[in-house]
């Protein structure tokens, strides 16, 4: 990504924002405006954008080189949880990853503000802009033909929509939990509690491998297979307990490839809905990363629903998004969603030498809760 800092827009940024916008007014179909926008109009526009409709600028060397905003999609009150995005870059900053960085910030802000849907209305000839939105999981939901006219030709408009993950409870001080490592026996002894955790996640709409409704029998049978893998030593399972109750879990799946013993996958990070945004996911991730280090893994990989709370958490923990795959898996209630592939080195460097298998058979031991 280009070296530019993204921050909230201020009144004094309006002239630079207007200049970037007016470049496209005069030269491009990405806006259907045809007359240059005066400064007072941009200032009034910024003032109308309250906390639920943030505006960001990207600044490099003290200069505004791009901006992005969330605006109400429709002024009627019933549409208040739907926002429309705009992203404009200084032409010299195109093609350097800044558009994606600004769009990423908008998606995070939309989630944090509790919005439900994000809409992009894009001139159909702006293929790069459409592709950028699709990378973030936006899906085309409509196309209006020849509704715009600029530079002597008719233009179609494509409407794309992004389903934003629901906002859970507000952030609170971390809730301390006891983290325990399961072996096959303790997993089998906790099939119901593990099942309840999985059912809660699926009922909450999480894309964790199952369609809704997930029955207790299906959930138990899934955890039985996990127990079998624990017995074979091909998986690590950690649980989080609060007052003795199982409230979270996460898995580590070491690669079984000879040339990738340093790699492991993070899977099925789950925190019960009533205890989310209390730092439990973060504690489980810290514990599984420690476990991964102990076992000699230096590269962690995962995939997660694009735009989900989990993606926000992984980003917060330093995971890098390698890219997105559209229509990767279905949500429990049906529609397919893209996934984001992410990775993180546990060591400082990308260099890896594997001299011998790092995980040789079952090494799990039951650890007393902290
Ligand atoms: C993803 C999940 C495990 C997070 O667990 P959690 O205990 O709520 O997460 P934490 O409280 O530790 O959050 C840590 C950070 O992640 C980010 N985060 C977590 N939930 C978020 C949300 N809903 N929106 C935005 N950011 C969020 C925040 O940066 C948060 O830090 P903050 O609270 O200081 O802002 C939980 O939402 C969950 O179980 N989801 C359903 C299952 C799922 O999708 N699992 C992932 C499979 S890959």
What does this structure look like?
- The protein has 370 residues and is an alpha+beta fold.
- It has 2 domains: 5-163, Aminopeptidase (3-Layer(aba) Sandwich); 178-345, 3-Layer(aba) Sandwich (Aminopeptidase), CATH 3.40.630.30.
- It has helices spanning 14-27, 39-48, 98-112, 127-135, 184-189, 191-203, 216-232, 280-294, 309-316; strands spanning 5-8, 55-60, 63-72, 82-89, 117-123, 139-150, 153-163, 178-182, 236-242, 245-254, 263-271, 299-305, 320-330, 336-345.
- The strands form 2 sheets. The protein has a 7-stranded mixed β-sheet with strand order 1-2-3-4-5-7-6, with helices on both faces. The chain has a 7-stranded mixed β-sheet with strand order 8-9-10-11-12-14-13, sandwiched between helices.
- The model is unreliable at 348-370 (pLDDT under 50).
- The chain binds coenzyme A (COA).
- Coenzyme A (COA) binds at residues 111-112, 167-168, 171, 201, 206, 208, 269-271, 276-282, 304, 308-310, 312-313, 316.
